[in-house]
Amino acid sequence: MGFSSVYWDEVQEGDExxxxxxxxxxxxxxxxxxxxxxxxxxxxxxxxxxxxGAKDIxxxxxxxxxxxxxxxxxxxxxxxxxxxxxxxxGATVFPGDTLTAGGKVARKYEEGNQHLVDVExxxxxxxxxxxxxxxxxxxxxx
Amino acid sequence: xSDAYEALQAMVGQESELRGxxxxxxxxxxxxxxxxxxxxxxxxxxxxxAKQSKYGGIVAPPQxxxxxSMPPLWPKREGKQDPFAKAVKLIxxxxxxxxxxxxxxxxxxxxxxxxxxxxxxxxxxxxxxEKGTRIGTGHFVTAExxxxxxxxxxxxxxxxTVLTFKPGTGG
Lengths: 142, 171
What we know:
The complex is a heterodimer.
Chain A: E1 16-23, H1 26-35, H2 46-51, H3 61-76, E2 81-89, E3 98-111, E4 114-125, E5 128-138
Chain B: H1 2-11, E1 19-20, H2 27-37, H3 42-45, H4 47-51, H5 65-68, H6 83-93, E2 98-108, E3 119-127, E4 131-132, E5 137-148, E6 154-165
Antiparallel strand pairs in B: 1-3, 2-6, 3-5, 4-5, 5-6
């Protein structure tokens, strides 16, 4: 199976990343929390979440980070390398939400011998923006 | 509030001791993470692909680094409370006990390879003056996590900011 790469030479500032949507189920929230070794009750215990003021269990931050990283390297291919990811946090993600992702290449530049892009991305649910920010990635050159 | 804020300002820059992560970077945890995240990047789970890559073998997703540092359910780890947790507790006692995470960022330096033994330390990086926000009146408290491997190479530096606020002051 081949994996395609986005090459720095071919990328242009303003390029949009393909959109992506994921249905977030109760299982998604629990599985990602446990896989990230986060046992806080708000991520798996309905009553526990309500005691903390949330309406239901919700996606943990490590998993937001996991999904952001995946979205970026799904676009770049496995030769793309995450250098820095900044995540601003907004609306909570609950079971039944659809998490929609988008992004665009904001900047293309060289630093030392690295060929870099800054990608502005955003993840949203119906209630509004869930996570957004800028990621710096190194891309391969042809 | 100014007394608590002065006390917190005095704590800025304090850093915890270096703490070892309980699990080495390992294939099983990586696969379980990728399974839950639905991350099909072959560098993380395809040995043949990873072997011919520049890494020479499977690596963990960079954004997974914090998962290796998470405290265990059981047995509970003994140890001093880190300066960030201490600051959040102190500011909570001063009435700012609402808490919401506002920002997290990670910068990656070296890859995590199978068998790597990670450690981390937590610094109280910043406490803002009191600010009015939509969520409530409070202070932004920022922690800086540094993750290193067994060769003492910095793997990742993470910044994490929470807003600690007085409940009921939003709007």
